[in-house]
Amino acid sequence: MERNVVKNGRSDGRVLGIIELAFPDAIGNDGYSSRIQEMPNHPKDRHVLVTAIPCEADILVTANLKDFQELPMNCKTASQHPDDFLLDQRNDSPHKCSMT
Fold first, then answer.
1. How many degrees, rounded to 5, is the angle at CA 67 between CA 1 and CA 87?
2. How far is it, in rounded angstroms, from Cα 41 to Cα 48?
3. DSSP 3-state assignment of 49?
4. How many angstroms separate the CA atoms of 54 and 41, rounded?
5. Which of 19, 29, 59, 67 could cross-link to 42 by cystine, CB 3.0-4.6 Å?
6. What is the model's pTM?
7. What top-level branch of life does the organism fall under (predicted)?
């Protein structure tokens, strides 16, 4: 995340401070950060997977499917393209989607 903030010309310290205020448990204080290197997916995307596993996310929505093909054996999280995710949501709950 820090590299994207800097790439977009924002002050990384300020943005991260705002995020930490809004989501105090979101940034690396969870005990899972030490497991990042264990993740089998692309090194730049391991932080995403290491947070999806402990929260038992059903779906990891990403357009970058190629970097999430290899998942740990204990991982019950599936990766899905945003277009497919939205189509599934529409098919599962058409009324809710039309209301949205």
1. 90
2. 10
3. helix
4. 16
5. 67
6. 0.63
7. Bacteria
